[in-house]
Amino acid sequence: MEVDRADGAIAGVVAAGAALAVGELVTAFDGAGRGLVSAVGDRFIEGFAGALKDVAVALFGTNDKVALVVGIVVVALALGALLGTARPLVARLAFPAFGALGAWAYGGALGLLAGALAALAGIGALAALRRVPAPARAPNTDPTVTVASRRQFLGFAGALGAGAAGTAALAGRIRTPPAANAEIALPAPVATTAIPAGVDLGVGASPYLTPVADFFRIDTALVVPRVDVARWSVAFTGRVDRPFTLTFDELLALDSVEVPVTLQCVSNTVGGELVGTAMWQGVELRTLLERAGVQPGGTQVVGRSVDGFTAGFPTALLDDDRIALLAYAMNGEPLTPTHGFPARLVVGGLYGYVSATKWLEAVDLTGLDDFDGFWIPRGWSKDGPIKVASRIDVPRSGAPVAAGTTPVAGVAWCPTRGIAAVEVSVDQGPWEPAELGDAANDQTWVQWLYRWDAVEGLRELRVRATTVDGEVQTEERAPPAPDGATGLHARLVRVSP
Ligand SMILES: Nc1nc2c(c(=O)[nH]1)N[C@H]1C(S)=C(S)[C@@H](COP(=O)(O)O)O[C@H]1N2
Ligand SMILES: [Mo]
Q1: In this structure, which ligand is nearest to the CA of 355?
Q2: For a 10 Å CB count at each end of the chain, is N or C smaller?
Q3: 255 φ, ψ (degrees, to nearest 5)
Q4: How many angstroms is it from 274 CA to the middle of ligand 2?
Q5: Each residue's pLDDT tens digit in the chain (497 positions)?
Q6: How remote is the CA of residue 265 from the centroid of ligand 1, in Å?
């Protein structure tokens, strides 16, 4: 009985694995970059993104996406184990039910085919495995037969399991084309914003320009879209007089500019890492919108991504001199797949969730009230101006500090409005001015440096910034939802004698 249950569970796990693998293989060929498992994961994110709110950041970090996929696979295999010990009829009903779930999540005829073949693979594998150990279960058999047929069963199960793993690996290979951005030759920009020599104060604060490898990544994409640039185009549509599309080559042939902009995620907490500055190269959005001829009703610019994500902001925001680019390069290199290859929007002064659509396929002009981007119905604010913020980078948490002069340094930002001053307070004492690094424009962060005369003991450092237009960063604490965190970054430092 024990062995029977264990064998049944093994057979069920292998059958579920076979079903998953077949589903992945069938969907590997449509170039969408996802399979039944990640489609189910996508539905999960869509459904729970709103409910989770603050938890959402964690969920949308790269590692947690892997965790979600692994979780779905583990749950599917565990359900398989249960089915393997249940009556055959239960499995014959359950596999088609899970196939249907996958088909629904994936959608379309291919989803239906993949779900059906996956269910058949599961039922077939389970039935085949159940047949093998049959002699072992028969009463009064020679024990050597039992051992032999159990071995036979385990061998068969192992072979089927290996076949399923191989199939899943093959599906993965078919699905992931080589990094598409490597071969692109970037045109020279007609204008490049010079980076002043004094942007980096050289005391260990975050570099003025964030290397691409260190740049935060936030998006809802479970599988990073791999866009075939030969087939890609971006459309200017909606409330415009002269809709048009651009292929990638046509986009690269237009006059471009290269300029640094600080990008921040609304989910960033006080002192958090979801902020960075890059040199963005691209075509000015205003020029493209002029070409399209925005109608009076086109009061919202909506970016649409190949993966269905949308983000929108008022067209009127482009009336000031904020940078707004249809960008295709970051720090002198074509965009990487994770940062939106082949093209994305970058708009100075707005959180990414209302502006910075990656894997862009359309710029759609709508009425401001006629459409809400992805995050708005999930409880985030329709307007997303970046709030004034500052962060202590050094001394790092837990780093040893000796009494005497110690640099305290970090970054401060309020893109489009600019930073006029940064101050530091020790142990709730008076606010002391910090030195500011240079900035290429008011749409990037600045480094700041305070030369602290550290006195032995446990000390608390706090920082606050003031914008060029006179707003002093508030110490009132607010969480990221619905429109960005506020509060002052503080750090406890133990100063040794
Ligand atoms: N297609 C797509 N674009 C997107 C998102 C997304 O989920 N999907 N997230 C936005 C959010 S919330 C942010 S903060 C920025 C982050 O850009 P990065 O990953 O290049 O840092 O991308 C924006 N563009
Ligand atoms: Mo974001």
Answers
A1: 1
A2: N
A3: -60, 135
A4: 8
A5: 445 788 899 999 999 999 999 998 998 877 666 788 888 888 887 777 666 555 555 455 556 677 788 888 999 999 999 999 998 899 899 999 999 999 999 998 999 999 999 999 999 999 999 887 555 444 545 554 456 678 888 899 999 999 999 988 888 777 765 556 778 999 999 999 999 999 999 999 999 999 999 999 999 888 888 888 988 999 999 999 999 999 999 999 999 999 999 999 999 999 999 999 999 999 999 999 999 999 999 999 999 999 899 999 999 999 999 999 999 999 999 999 999 999 999 999 999 999 999 999 999 999 999 999 999 998 899 999 999 999 999 999 888 899 999 999 999 999 999 999 999 999 999 999 999 999 999 999 999 999 999 999 999 999 999 999 999 999 999 999 999 999 999 999 999 99
A6: 8
Q: How far does residue 484's CA lie from ligand 2's centre (Å)?
A: 10
Query: Is 407 in a helix, a strand, or coil?
Result: strand
- Rg (C-alpha) for the chain, rounded Å, is 28
Element (H, E) at 292: helix 285-292
Q: Which residues of 478-494 are buried (b: 16+ CB within 10 A; e: fewer)?
A: eebbbbbbbbbbebebe
Q: Which residues are placed with Cβ below 5 angstroms of ligand 2, an ion?
A: 218, 265, 352-353
Residue 168 to residue 158: CA distance in whole angstroms: 15
| Residue 72 structure tokens | 């779905």
Q: Among 54, 59, 217, 219, name the best residue to mutate to test ligand 1's pocket (greatest count of ligand atoms within 8 A of Cβ).
A: 219
